[in-house]
Every structure is written in structure tokens, then in C-alpha cells.
Amino acid sequence: MKYESQKIALAYFGVALGLFVIQIIGGLLVGWVYVSPNFLSELVPFSTLRMLHTNSLIVWLLLGFFGAAYFLIPEEAEREIHSPKLAYIQLGILVLGTLGVVVTYLFNLFEGHWLLGKEGREFIEQPVWVKIGIVVAALIFLYNVTMTILKGRKTAISNILVLGLWGLALLFLFAFYNPHNLALDKQYWWYIVHLWVEGVWELIMASILAFLMLKLTGVDREVVEKWLYVIVAAALFSGILGTGHHYYWIGTPGYWQWIGSIFSSLEVIPFFAMMAFAFVMVWKGRRDHPNKAALLWSLGCATLAFFGAGVWGFLHTLHGVNYYTHGTQITAAHGHLAFYGAYVCLNIAIFTYALPILRNRDPYNQVLNMAAFWLMSGGMVFMTFTLTFAGTIQTHLQRVMGDYYMDVQDQLSLFYWMRFGSGVVVFIGVLLLIYSLALPRKEVITTDASVAAE
Amino acid sequence: MTEDSVLDELPGDLMIWVLIVSELLVFGAGLAAFLAVRITDPAGFAEAQDALHRTGAGINTVVLVTSGALAAWALRLREGARRGAARLALIAAALLGVVFLWVKGAEYAAKAAHGIGWDTHPFYTFYYLLTGFHAAHVVAGVLVLLLVAWKDAPRNIEAGAAFWHMVDLVWVLLFPVIYLLR
């Protein structure tokens, strides 16, 4: 660790991993409700469990991004973070908001209250006071990192990372605008949901991936930057008007069907480019970095993001297809592998890379960490396949044959059982991962060891 | 990396080529979709097409191609160190872009006067989407041409002219497919 203030990242990563466990437990509970629909229905209904599953996912990914920024910006800017104290205050606000959200959701406190009660819109259900807290925390963060970069060395990686984080914060402001007209409500709602994950988050993803490639493969910065610019251009070109693929059936004009179909089909390109980038860098790179697990997570990230976000997204993005598949388990299949590949793997890659450096240790537990990668990724890929099969059958029975929703759900139970099983595998993988990251052991994978074994 | 990439052989900046390829993919996909939907209703598409002003579009083709030639000529002038003439050629190219937009605007106004909108027929959905997107690129191209007339480094003019040729090329593809194809 070159800069003392990089230590801030440790606190962010720790809280993120804690929320990750809560997210996966939430996922297991929701998955069990699909198998046994009355489970917990009186105590914590499905809708609340699902909110916890999705909200904790978003918050831990954001904490990971913030932590990654606090870790890599000092190295890129070649100076300490402007104010470590502000960074910890920011974390405190976010933790307080998260606790407020969990308590408000679980006990449905202050129902209907404009400031204290939960709001209705999917994924942005947080009470208004928490939303204000998120904005304050984001402003503190942006002030802190922007000041650091302005006073230090400016690189493409840190510029694009901060551009993405600025976009993330500005787009969140649409959470405060809630028109009464349902079509308008949805139109603006997608400015947050879509322009986050298929817009500015891709900038964050590309820049963190570029940083990892730079460190792990030793390829020249110039080459990495050229790739980064192309990826970012392709992401914004396709992703912004790609928002149109959410405007097919919400009451917006029909021409969105063509705008959405065409531009969102091109959204595969930046994800393909990121995968090509990662593999080309590894092939070209001459550095034999000891942290093999971080490299595995980086390559896994780029690959699974291409399949989850790119291929599985394209699967149902054309409006002629989406007319039948909209809101079926096909969407769930895409959502799970896209988030896992693009953003979960990305965060774990940077955690795996940064934690040994932050704690001033060699990269221990590489084999355990890599086993966790295969368990988690295998589990998620299996889950994606089961949900894709479930969604295909659901689309045919429900949308083509016209069977009733609940009758169709009964027919899907075998897939929901298999999905629950794959969720358990993911959970075991997560526990293994956290164990491997948190607890030091003597075993280190080095090139010497592999030579000796041959 | 010390080895040279084939990408280095491209004239102008790499990023302008990324943009050009992306634009061609979008317009190409749009034209392919247009032709696919046309198969479902050839008679309806032919009837709708007859309401278009083919002569106006033909004039616009000449206007835009001439403008493209002026932009290319400007780069050659600038490389021959004739800055003033290069600037004039770029401004003339931009003015022809404005002429294109004026003709296009008259065409849109005539359609509106006949009560023809984007949802009158699937033909017009594509007509307005494709020519509308293209016209938006002409607006951007005029601004780019004026920008590189002002900041007239050869590298800038090259990028501006490359973008403007893409706008040209797209129109030369749109014109026969939308206006002429029977």
C-alpha cells in the first residue's frame, strides 16, 4: 500500500461484504418462497424479502464502488485522498441509511408518511429521508475524490471512474421526481434503473477493470487507455438510446419499439469489447502477478458480464420477442447473471486484489478463493439456465397458450427447486470467499511453488 | 506495446472510426428492419412511398454529395497550407448542409400539411425515424464543419470530413431504399 488513505477502502469493503451475506440470505428466503409459497407470508411477506434482496445488492455494490475509488484514486492521482475523515462520515451516513431502510421495510413503519415511510417504486422504495442521506453521502464522496484528482495526476482511468460516479449521483436525483401519470413515472424511473446499469455503471466497470488489467498484466497504460475509450464510447452510444427497450409497453409512443430494439441490440458490443480487452491484456501481458485469484475474478467478470448482460439481454430485447417474454422468468435469468457477472464479480475482483495490499500481506488462500469463484459462478450459471428453461416454458404456456399465471407457476416447480439448490451452492461459495478474504493462512501460490510441483 | 497496430494505419483519430462504424450499424439495422417490415405489406409501402417528394430528395442528394466533396477538398487545401481557402470550402460545405436541412424541412412541412405523421403507416414510422435521425446528424455535421473551420488543424479537419462523409454515405443509402425502391 503506497498511500495511507487507501485504508479507507478496507472499511467500505468490510461493510459491503456484510451486506452481501444479507443479500444472499434474502435470496435464499425468496427462492424458498417460490418453492413453498406460504413460507413467512404472515411474518415477512415476499414483497418485503424481495426488496431486501434487491436493495442490499445495490447498496453493497455501491459501497464496493466507493471503496474501489478510495483504493485506486490515490494510486492514479499519486496523492492521498483529500479528506479521510469525510470518507468515514460518508460511510457512516450510508450505514445509518441502510439500517433505517431495513427497519422501515421489516416493520413497515410510518406507512404512507411522506418523509419517513417507504415509497412505492421498485428498487427505489427507500423513505425520502434515506434518499436525502444518499444524496448527501454522494456529494461528500464526489467532493472528496474530485478534489483529490484535481490536485493530483489525471489519468483516463480515474477520470472515467469519476465521470461514471458523477453520472450515477446525478441520475439518482430522478428518484425525487414521481409524476402521477404512471407512464411518465416509469419513463423517468428508467433514467435511474437503466441509465445506471447500462450506462454510467459500465463506465465504472470499465475503469476498474482497466485498473486491474494494468496492475495484474503489466500491459502499457497507453494500450489500456485506448481500449478504455473505445469501450466507454460503445457503452454510451448503445446504452443511452437503448433505454428505449423499456419503453415498449408502458404507454410511450410506438417508435420506441424500433429505437429500443436497434440501439439495445448494440449493447452487446461494449460487453464483448470488455471481454476481448481482458483476455487480450492477459495474453499480451508479461507480468506474472502472484494474485491469481484476482485475475480469475477479473476474467470471470468480463466473460460472465458478456453472457449475462450481453447475450441474455439480447435474448429478449427485440420488441417482437419481448412482447411474449416481458416479465417472465427470462427476465429473472438475465437479471441474475448480468448483475453477478458485471458487478458482483467486478467488486470481488477488486476486493481480492486490494485486500492483501491493504492488510500488508501476501495473497493468501488463493485456492480457497478460486474454489469460491467456481462454486459461486457455477451456481449462478446453473441458476440462469434453470430460470431460462422456466421462462421459456412460462412464455409458451402463459403468453402463447393463454394459461393462468398460477397454473403455470405450478408447472414450473421443478425449476424453482433446482434454482433453490443452485442458490445454496452460491451461498456456500460466498461463505468460502469471505473466509478466504478475511482469515490469513500460510498457503501462498507463487510461481516457485508451481515450478517445484512440476 | 512496441508493435504497431493495424488501427494506426487509419486516417484520422481511432475514435471517429468507432463512431462511424457505430452509426453505420444503427442505420444499417434500421434499413434492414424497414425492408423486413416492407415484406409484410408491399402494396401499402408502395402507396405510402408515392406521397414522398422524390425530386426534392434527388436535389438533396446532389447537395449533400457536393458538400462532401467540398469538405474533402478543404483537407487537401489545408495540407497544402492554404488555410483561408480551406476555411471557405468548409463554410461552403456547411452552408450546403443548411440547404439540405431547408429542403428536408419543406418536405416535413408538406407531410404535416397532408396530415401524415409517424403513426400514419409503418412506412412513415421508418421514414421519420431514419430521415429524422439522419437530419439530426446533418445538424451535428454542420456544427462540426464550422468547428473545424475555426479550429483548423489538419487532424481536426480530417476527423470532421470523415464524420461528414459518413452522413453523406448514409443519405446515399437511405435515398434509394426509402424513396426509390419499388
From TrEMBL, chain A:
Keywords assigned: Cell membrane, Electron transport, Heme, Iron, Membrane, Metal-binding, Oxidoreductase, Respiratory chain, Transmembrane, Transmembrane helix, Transport
Reactions this protein catalyses: nitrous oxide + 2 Fe(III)-[cytochrome c] + H2O = 2 nitric oxide + 2 Fe(II)-[cytochrome c] + 2 H(+)
Domain Cytochrome oxidase subunit I profile: 172-454
Segments crossing the lipid bilayer: 12-35, 55-74, 86-108, 128-145, 157-177, 189-214, 226-249, 255-282, 294-315, 335-355, 367-394, 414-435
InterPro entries: Cyt_c_oxase-like_su1_dom (IPR023616), Cyt_c_oxase-like_su1_sf (IPR036927), Cyt_C_Oxase_1 (IPR000883), Cyt_c_Oxase_su1_BS (IPR023615)
Compartments (UniProt record): Cell membrane
GO cellular component: plasma membrane
Gene Ontology BP terms: aerobic respiration; electron transport coupled proton transport; respiratory electron transport chain
Coiled coil: none
PANTHER family in the record: CYTOCHROME C OXIDASE SUBUNIT 1, NITRIC OXIDE REDUCTASE SUBUNIT B
Subunit description: Heterodimer of cytochromes b (large subunit) and c (small subunit).
Name of this protein: Nitric oxide reductase subunit B
Species, as recorded: Roseovarius pacificus
From TrEMBL, chain B:
Membrane found in the keyword field: yes
Example GO molecular function: cytochrome-c oxidase activity
Primary location recorded for the protein, binned into one broad class: membrane
Any single biological process term in GO: aerobic electron transport chain
Alphabetical list of InterPro entries matching this protein: Cyt_c/ubiquinol_Oxase_su3, Cyt_c_oxidase-like_su3, Cyt_c_oxidase_su3-like_sf, Cyt_c_oxidase_su3_a-hlx
Bilayer topology annotation: Multi-pass membrane protein
Membrane-spanning intervals of the chain: 14-37, 57-75, 87-106, 126-150, 162-181
Ranges of residues in domain Heme-copper oxidase subunit III family profile: 1-182
Domain of life: Bacteria
Keywords, alphabetical: Membrane, Transmembrane, Transmembrane helix
Compartment annotation: Cell membrane; Membrane
UniProt cross-references to Pfam families, sorted A to Z: COX3
One GO cellular component term noted in the UniProt record for this chain: plasma membrane
The UniProt record lists the keyword RNA-binding: no
Family that this chain belongs to: Belongs to the cytochrome c oxidase subunit 3 family.
Protein name as catalogued: Nitric oxide reductase NorE protein
